[in-house]
Request: fold
Amino acid sequence: MRLLQTRADLNDWCRGQTGRPLHFVPTMGSLHAGHQQLLQRACEVVPAGRPAVLLSVFVNPLQFGPSGDFDRYPRDLAADAALGEAAGAEALFAPSVQELFPGGEAQLTAVVPPAALRQTLCGPGRPGHFEGVATVVCRLLALVRPDRLLLGEKDWQQLTILRRVVADLALPVTVQGCATVREADGLACSSRHRYLSASERDRAAALPAALALALIHISEPTRLPP
Ligand code: PAF
Reply:
């Protein structure tokens, strides 16, 4: 797998893929089984042919709040490269902040999703988060120019907002959402689980259990005990 650390490396690699569909999986690294599945889906042959699959690892400062975990966010590029390669990625774009935002973060043109999406659900509790996600993803899309962008359904709000941004800006990319991958106790795989203590982890597993029960309440209430 090719490691691409500059925009020039990325351009060269992308030029070499001419004629193949280009499928892109952006991540913040610390890859797990959910990312592995995104990459495997990205490798699937489409009518346009066998895709070239690009993985990116970039811990995006724009999407962390001032008291967020940007500095301690887990980073292990060698492990990410090994997982990415085993899952079928042909190249890994891992730019520095300076390389991706050469004019500085403060000078960037920001992409601001519609208020109706930013200001609902977890948006108000994470000021600037969805703008940060939309801005970095648009920047990556402009550099990579992929045919297909693969994102996990685990981050449903992010997926919804990015679908909307892509549609509103008429970006020439297909957004493909991929099913959530879960651990044995039902918890969705996430890079941040390593922050949880054993008891927090046990409590977190109550969430998917409650959601599964809610689903039965809604869709098959006759299965419930009287
Ligand atoms: O889901 C993530 O890992 C990030 O929010 C993304 C889409 C890579 C943007 O930084």
User: Anything to note?
Assistant: The longest strand covers residues 22-27. The mean pLDDT is 95. The pocket of pantoate is lined by residues 26-28, 60, 63, 133, 136-137, 155, 158 (CB under 6 Å).
